[in-house]
Amino acid sequence: MGLNKSSKIDLEGFKAYILVERNFSKHTAKAYCTDVLDFLIWLDETSCEEVNFSKVREYLHFIQKFQYKKTTLARKISSLRTFYKYLYREKKVDSNPAGSLNSPKRPRNLPKFLTTYEVEQILNNVSIDTPAGFRNKTILELLWATGMRISELSGLNFEDLNLEENEIKVFGKGAKERIILVSERAKSYLTRYIDTARPLVAKGYEVDTDSTSPVFINNTGYRLQPKTVRNVINDVVEKIDLPKHVTPHVFRHSFATHLIENGADLRVVQELLGHASISNTQIYTHISSQHLKEVYNETHPRA
């Protein structure tokens, strides 16, 4: 199996379309392009512009043997739909052969979250004896205080900070801009990190401090990558023997859950999280209800 020349050109055009015009994240664009590439390789010498609905169904039948999860299969169908939507827009096909495909119903799993005590356990066990350690502590304080995505935190530049107003500007999915709020505690750590720890994190390297410079840097002065933050969390969780799998996104789920448990309006939480749809935020109300039931069952004498 191979990839013919016209399909390769279509794939390159599709990649530019979803990155530039649709504002897909690099991660999502990579996944979509990989899905389409797999399909194009399967087509072999058949042009993707000659494919009909039956051919697409044949491909889906073919990949059934790989036993993908429903979420993965749904994404692959979405990738093909979007690819042919692009080809239709470019007038390379007369219709979208993947347009009427039904996606498998995705299981709606409740996000995992940490209790306030568990968060404090993690925060209190981050070593701040070194500049990098203080940076790590600041990052986790920010994740807990703001609910921002790790990619948003990694992408922060100095021009995005408005600490006088306790505000930070972030760019979320689809490059959508929003303002998030920072607690006094997290602001204090961030200010101290910028003033004292950041200049020492990359000792021996020149560190820029202009408006477009990254707030969080590694030991060579370049922008800190999300993988480093994940490693920091893994080390602390292992140290305190916390029986949960904790990721940066779990901090985000915890932030949202505790806001709602304490009476925050759903629309406010939606805005703080940067959710495009209120339905994405409503899942945290289910978490809160489940938590209330667990507490009731554990504490009520006749439960």
Write out the strand line-up for the largest beta sheet, numbering strands in chain order. 1-2-3
Question: What is the correct CATH architecture of the largest domain?
Answer: Orthogonal Bundle
CATH class of the largest domain: Mainly Alpha
| CATH fold title of the largest domain | hpI Integrase, Chain A
Relevant CATH superfamily of the largest domain: Intergrase catalytic core
**N- to C-terminal distance:** 62 Å
The proportion of residues forming helix, as a percent range, comes to 55-70%
Q: What is the residue-mean pLDDT, rounded to a whole number?
A: 87
Which class best fits the helix and strand makeup? mainly alpha
What are the low-pLDDT stretches, counting only 5+ consecutive residues below 50? none
DSSP helical segment count: 12
Q: What is the global morphology?
A: globular
- In quaternary terms, these chains amount to single chain
Task: Write down the Rg.
Answer: 23 Å
Description of the molecule:
Helices cover 57% and strands 4% of the residues. By secondary structure, it is mainly α. It has a 3-stranded antiparallel β-sheet. The longest helix is centred in the C-terminal third of the chain and has 22 residues, at 278-299.
